[in-house]
Write a structure and sequence with these properties.
Elements lengths: L38 E2 L36 H10 L21 H9 L3 E14 L2 E17 L3 E4 L9 E7 L5 E10 L4 E6 L8 E2 L10 E6 L9 E15 L5 E8 L11 E3 L4 E9 L7 E5 H14 L5 E2 L2 E5 H8 L9 E6 L4 H5 L6 E5 L2 E2 L3 H8 L7 E8 L2 E8 L1 E2 L5
């Protein structure tokens, strides 16, 4: 292990999604997953332990650290460009200007690269890291490198939260295909989703075309483009297939990145935040992680998770989330901490409800266990947070919960999360 790796040591399982079964003798067990962060003059990294509840989704095993560097409304970049053209704003060349004909003799990966490489950027981040030592807290600067892709000609770029140091950065430099560099400004990031939006002060940029990750099929082609290891290898193209859907990566502090696309297209350090394309050259995922002890196990965040966030930030300049107004913990953690049995197999146990919050207004109480919102299964606070990204202020949802062993349902009106929460 070198100084460029940030690892935690934990054991879990790699299972098929939505199945609760033991691995048989013909299945390989994995106990190492690495999410590597390339850096320069970086101090020895801090080890973190992370975990998750095992109910209802795939847990990928694992020695973990992040690669390179964790819905509602549909957004098509072409529509945004058209809207800006009508308003007199300058627009750049879009990925839609190049059509890929899968019936011709051109190898599809070459066509995808020709269509999309100019939309991929390198992101170099000056990170400030703090360490607790015998002499007290110490800070040290380091530099990490990742990838991103342009979603709007006015300089809006999608990447991973960990590429920009999970918000703990001093400077961000974006490298464009013409060799120029621009200072990046972080408009928004979320460590639960491992997503970030960065903006540069430049217009007329080429943009990607966004695909539909909800329609993906296991076995269809995929192409990853990014900057593995170093900017000297910028815009490296790797090709493979969609190997699996709805995967999850679990950490011992309860944080979970899910649902993820699994691919065997090679993803290496520095690919984080870069795009995963389908055979038409449309972005279907944001590359985020790989398993270092096995070949062909890379993971990407589905693009449909990011679409409503991208749309709102481009239109409004910021992204506002709604909230339920509770503090809570998953059933398994609650049972282990208190040594009790909860009358629910999964869900979020409400510890406290906030005054005047949607939860309080709808009648939820401490001790209730939230198990679903609008029929979508909720197993953890991370699940709940991800689910709420699909809604806007004043949207009505049906909350399923367990109280005194009985399943009940209640209608709730969601509200924009107050700035002080």
């Amino acid at each position: 292990m070198d100084d460029n790796e940030r690892n935690t040591f934990n054991e879990s399982e790699l299972n098929e999604n939505n199945e609760n079964r033991e691995l048989n003798n013909n299945e390989k067990q994995y106990n190492d997953i690495n999410f590597v962060m390339p850096s320069y003059d970086e101090p020895k990294s801090k080890k973190k332990s992370k975990r998750k509840s095992f109910f209802g989704y795939v847990a990928v095993a694992l020695v973990a650290a992040l690669v390179g560097g964790l819905s509602g409304g549909y957004i098509a970049t072409s529509q945004l460009n058209i809207a800006r053209s009508k308003n007199g704003e300058k627009t750049g060349i879009t990925a839609q200007d190049i059509n890929i004909n899968l019936s011709d003799d051109t190898y599809f990966a070459a066509a995808v690269a020709e269509k999309t490489q100019k939309t991929v950027v390198g992101i170099t981040t000056d990170v400030v890291q703090q360490y607790n030592t015998f002499f007290g807290p110490q800070t040290q600067k380091s530099q990490s490198m990742g990838s991103g892709f342009i979603v709007d000609p006015n300089g809006y770029i999608v990447t991973n939260a960990h590429v920009i140091g999970d918000g703990k950065y001093e400077n961000i430099t974006v490298s464009l295909i013409d060799g120029s560099t621009e200072v990046g400004e972080v408009l928004w990031y979320d460590t639960t989703l491992d997503l970030a939006i960065v903006k540069i002060n430049k217009t007329g940029l080429p943009t990607v075309e966004l695909g539909d990750s909800d329609t993906l099929l296991v076995g269809e082609p995929a192409v990853a483009i990014g900057n593995p290891m170093t900017l000297d290898l910028e815009r490296t193209v790797t090709q493979g297939i969609i190997s699996g859907l709805n995967r999850s990566i679990a950490f011992e502090d309860g944080t979970v990145i899910e649902p993820l696309i699994q691919t065997d297209a090679s993803i290496n350090s520095g690919n984080s935040g870069g795009p995963l394309f389908n055979a038409k050259g449309q972005v279907i995922g944001i590359n985020t992680a790989k398993m270092s002890t096995a070949e062909g196990l890379g993971f990407s965040i589905p693009i449909n998770i990011a679409k409503p966030i991208i749309e709102q930030i481009i239109n409004d300049g910021s992204f506002s989330t709604v909230y339920v107004g509770i503090t809570g913990v998953d059933v398994e953690t609650y049972e282990k901490a208190l040594g009790v049995d909860v009358a629910a197999d999964y869900g979020v146990v409400i510890i406290e409800t906030m005054a005047n919050s949607p939860a309080t207004v709808s009648g939820l109480e401490p001790g209730d266990v939230i198990t679903a919102i609008d029929g979508d299964k909720i197993e953890s606070m991370s699940d709940l947070k991800r689910n709420l990204y699909e809604y806007k202020n004043d949207d009505n949802v049906e909350v399923t919960f367990i109280r005194n062993g009985n399943e009940q349902k209640v209608n709730m009106t969601l509200k924009t999360k107050p700035a002080d929460l």
